[in-house]
Specification:
24% helix, 13 strands, 27% strand, globular, 5 helices, eight-stranded antiparallel beta sheet, Phosphatase 2c, domain 1
């Protein structure tokens, strides 16, 4: 039983939970354009990696993120996890509409890896091979599952994990948003949160940095901005044959200073000029 508070002493008010955050994206050393888009604010974090090359990978990722960013407010009608999943399905329908308007965009698609913080819970929605990692209570783990052909082979016991990086079909995706599937299957979860836990959301361009190096960087780099800068710099040092986007999030109690903190959007499409 909790001890009684001294007479006249008010019950401490629990502050609402928010995300503190930093993000960075880079086109890399080889690609001519950046097909990644991202957004992170106090309640929403999302990374989208577009595909389709000249067929509009940048349009797919940017349109998806732009469709979702209005969710960053923390107050939702009904279940927040359902709201998040429904919005991603709405974004998928939007991509089909864009292809109908401009058939040259046929075949475009995008991954989506996202977190929505509401009422002390994190709602997770994911499709594709962008990744979500969590550092909590000293444990660093990948929360997302890659929706790739090689991951399916690994799950079926037909391929060893160490063979995945050299497999000729390692970049073949089995599930994405796009104009192919009217109702794509999302991985969904609702997770308890703890103050101070950290999340890393990233496009697969970060995969060119060894996993243990990524983990060490997230563990040892306390400043979120420094962490994302270091991870992208490590990718560039590794050759960066793909675009790379990194979002770092830390769960914290809201303070008056957080109210004026601007969200970060990374939308390198011609649709919008983003600012990091």
């Amino acid at each position: 039983m909790a001890a009684d508070l001294p007479a006249g002493e008010a019950t401490p008010v629990q502050r609402p939970l928010i995300m503190r955050y930093a993000a960075r994206s880079d086109v890399g050393r080889i690609r001519a354009k950046n097909d990644d888009s991202a957004y992170v604010g106090r309640h929403l974090a999302v990374v989208a990696d577009g595909m389709g090359g000249h067929a509009g990978g940048d349009v797919a990722s940017a349109a998806t993120v732009l469709d979702m960013l209005h969710l960053d407010h923390g107050d939702y009608e009904g279940d927040a996890g359902t709201v998040l999943a429904d919005e991603i399905q709405t974004a998928n329908s939007l991509l089909s509409e864009l292809v109908h308007i401009n058939p040259k965009l046929a075949g475009m698609g995008t991954t989506v890896t996202s977190l929505l913080l509401a009422e002390g819970k994190l709602h997770f929605a994911h499709i594709g091979d962008s990744r979500a990692y969590r550092l909590r209570d000293g444990e660093f783990e990948q929360i997302s599952v890659d929706h790739t052909f090689v991951q399916r082979l690994i799950d079926e016991g037909r391929l060893r994990p160490e063979e995945a990086e050299t497999h000729p079909h390692k970049n073949v995706l089995m599930r994405v948003l796009g104009d192919v599937d009217a109702s794509p299957e999302l991985d969904l979860d609702t997770l308890d949160v703890k103050l101070g836990e950290r999340w890393l959301l990233c496009s697969d361009g970060l995969n060119y940095v060894a996993g243990h190096v990524v983990e060490r960087t997230v563990r040892e780099t306390k400043d979120l901005r420094e962490c994302v800068e270091t991870l992208v710099d490590l990718t560039l040092e590794a050759g960066a044959p793909d675009n790379v986007t990194v979002v770092m999030v830390e769960i914290a109690e809201e303070t008056p200073d957080d109210v004026s903190t601007a969200a970060v959007d990374i939308i390198p499409s011609a649709l919008v000029t983003g600012a990091a």
